[in-house]
Amino acid sequence: MLDDKEEVKRALVTISIEKALLGIGKPTYDEVLSVLNTQYHCYLPDCYEHPEYLNEILRRLYGNAGKVITKSITTQLEEFNQHKPIKRFLEVICN
Fold it and tell me: Options 1.10.10, 3.40.50, 3.40.1000, 1.10.1200; which CATH number does 4-94 get?
């Protein structure tokens, strides 16, 4: 169970992922959510604890083009990367 501060960080990460995916297009958003659900049995907020899922999905579906999405997420979360969980999240999705 996450405490209130962790819930806020999780929400920030989730919103940043949503914004980045929707910035590319609704089909991209829907496809990533579908793979998260079918392959990992989880949802977008779960990427906060398991950024490797998002990293793997973006690489597999979009190859190098997935870096556009990770760059967008990184830019949105830049001011929060002093928080260890967010820093870890960003490190994992950018590898």
Answer: 1.10.1200
Annotate 42-76 with b (16+ C-beta within 10 A) or e (fewer): eebebbbbebebbbbbbbeebeeebeebbebbbeb
Q: Is the pLDDT of residue 66 over 80?
A: yes
Distance between CA 61 and CA 28 in Å, rounded? 9
- pLDDT tens by residue, 20-41: 999 999 999 999 999 999 999 9
